[in-house]
Amino acid sequence: MSDWTITTLSRAIAARQVSPVEVTRECLARIEKLDPSVRSFITVDAEGAVAAARELEAELAAGLSRGPLHGIPLAYKDLFCVRGLPTSCGTKTREYFASDCECTAVSRLREAGAVTLGKLNMTELALGPFGDNPHHGDVQNPWKRGHAAGGSSSGSAAAVAAGFVVGALGSDTGGSVRLPAACCGVVGLKPTYGRVSRAGAMPLSWSMDHVGPLARTVMDGALLLGAIAGHDRLDATSSRRGVPYYERVLDTPVEGVRVGLPENYYFEELDAEVDAGVRAASKVLADLGAEVAPMRVPDPLPLVEVCNVITRAESAAIHARLVRERPHELGPAVRARLEVGLHISAHDYLQALRLRARYTREFVARAFTAADVLVVPVIPEPAPALDAAKAGTPDEIVRRMGSFSRLTRPFNGLGLPALAMPCGFSRDGRPLAFQVVGRPFDEATTLRLGHAYERAAGWVARRPALD
Amino acid sequence: MLSFPPRTRMSEPDRRSPAATDLAAAIARLARELALAEEPSGFVAALDNDPDVRDAREHSV
């Protein structure tokens, strides 16, 4: 099971080499055996998963196929409403978030034939980049125990890396899909703001929240994105733009694609191995025919400050009742972050929203005149030790959180599509990663670059040793 | 005639944390040169108006 990808498993199911029930049972057995030491799941729905797999198997026996996701085992971050299962959002409260309807992205995957194995662990309220959780256990990095899985979609990335599922959904408000993907050596995509509906997902910050897939390969990420993207009447911010058949454009050669390597901000104060890994990835892209060139982008620091104001104000508004009435239930750093938001004025919040509009317009106009995509690091250092990440006062931890997410947060503010993917390993075996950032709604080109790199580099063949 | 207690404010600025004060100072500095016409919806417009992303290969949903 740990060697399957969505693509290979889909072919095997279609060819009747393996059945959805067999696949589901194998995943459940692997989760039962190995997840106690990874802590990637909050809820495992064994009964529901087997029942769904049986129905899908019967459809296949009757000659019906729903497509490439038919019988594919997936799981979802525990902030997406899934029919019949509780949604804790990583809090102490088992059913913290309720929605009138199931999460649209989950429903679309179910309609496409996916089997839901359960709900995945996450940072409390999605507020933190390390994947620790005081209520459900710290998610362990499958590549190196005792080290952060990244957050906040920690369980999503760890479950994919550990081979418990072949794909997962996460949410990304400041890097929460891409940071865990980078720490765990898997692919994670934050689509363009508006590309994927957020209906039925716990909001953390309406202006910054994105829903995105995590998977082993770029092709798998493309298949998942194709299933969940597109307008949804339940989310007024979802775009009415058409959705490409992403998987069909991945093999288009990347020759002539202009890749910008920002000299300012993104390569400053980086771990040496991360720096070398990302630069080596850009060299591979150049060898594939892409036109790689250094460039300067508008300074992201003001944008990061603007993002902080917006996110803090919105998250405090959304979770005000919890932080005011039951603050003792929250971890100290999460509580500290929320409490700041209670003290942001409406004036500052509105000015921040206006500034964001200006910065986005300027960035798109300037950065994408010289380049079609940008290549930058995801994490400033390989996954840190959990003990070190959690040490210190709440203020120190909050500062550490901000530093660890400083390379992902700007693209939430800008709303641009950003693909995180592996580009090697540190000397002690922790994954390295880079982001491919595209024009608005041009996920296709970011995925195409990523797919070309992945095939040339070959990192995808490596697996963490769990058994 | 309506009267309000002088210290009642929705955003509780009188008990601001240092972090909130820092953020407010940053916004005040950055917003100095904002054009009067700038409004929040300009963000979505900036994403939707990029002329270089074509929909030729796209299918409708």
Give a verbal description of the structure.
The complex is a heterodimer of chains A (467) and B (61). Chain A is α/β, with parallel strands linked by helices and 467 residues long. Chain A has a single domain (75-461), classed as Amidase signature (AS) enzymes (Alpha-Beta Complex). Helices cover 42% and strands 15% of the residues of chain A. Chain A is built from 17 helices and 13 strands. In chain A, the strands form two sheets. In chain A, strands 1-3-2-6-8-7-12-13-11-9-10 form an eleven-stranded mixed β-sheet. In chain A, strand 2 (73-77), helix 4 and strand 3 (115-120) form a beta-alpha-beta unit. The radius of gyration of chain A is 20 Å and the shape is globular. The mean pLDDT of chain A is 97. By secondary structure, chain B is an all-alpha fold. Chain B is built from two helices and no strands. Chain B has helices at residues 18-30, 42-48. The model of chain B is unreliable at 55-61 (pLDDT under 50). The interface between A and B is large, with 51 and 38 residues.
Instruction: Catalogue the unreliable spans of chain B.
Output: 55-61
Q: How do the helices and strands follow one another from N- to C-terminus of chain A?
A: HHEHEHEEEHEHEEHHEHEHHHHEHHHEEH
Radius of gyration of chain A over all CA atoms, rounded: 20 Å
Q: Please give the alpha-carbon distance between the first and last residues of chain A.
A: 12 Å
Count of helical stretches of chain B: 2
Strand order in space, largest sheet of chain A: 1-3-2-6-8-7-12-13-11-9-10
* Tally of strands of chain A: 13
Work out the helicity level of chain B.
Answer: 25-40%
What is the fold named in CATH at topology level of chain A?
Answer: Amidase signature (AS) enzymes
Number of helices of chain A: 17
Principal-axes shape call of chain A = globular
